């Protein structure tokens, strides 16, 4: 059983780092339900 199994996740990625969809894929493969995913620019 995964630590994220059955949990809901909000994903905020960084444009210059790891984008949101990449993090969302990892979270989903670990069992989380991604309810929101976005890539933002933090300047």
Walk me through the structure.
This protein is of the alpha+beta class and 43 residues long. Helices cover 23% and strands 35% of the residues. It is built from one helix and two strands. A two-stranded parallel sheet has the order 1-2. Strand 1, helix 1 (20-29) and strand 2 (33-40) form a beta-alpha-beta unit. It is elongated, with a radius of gyration of 11 Å. The N and C termini lie far apart (38 Å).
What's a concise summary of this model?
This protein is an alpha+beta fold and 43 residues long. It is built from 1 helix and 2 strands; from the N terminus they run βαβ.
Keywords for this entry:
43 residues; 23% helix; 1 helix; 2 strands; two-stranded parallel sheet; alpha+beta
Question: What is the element layout, followed by pairings?
Answer:
Blueprint: E1 8-14, H1 20-29, E2 33-40
Parallel strand pairs: 1-2
Q: Based on DSSP secondary structure assignment, what is the total number of beta strands?
A: 2
Low-confidence stretches: none
Which H/E pattern describes the elements? EHE
Oligomer designation: single chain
């Amino acid at each position: 059983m995964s630590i994220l199994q059955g949990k809901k996740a909000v994903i905020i990625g960084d444009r210059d780092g790891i984008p949101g969809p990449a993090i969302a894929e990892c979270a989903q493969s670990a069992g989380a339900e991604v309810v929101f995913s976005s890539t933002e620019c933090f300047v």
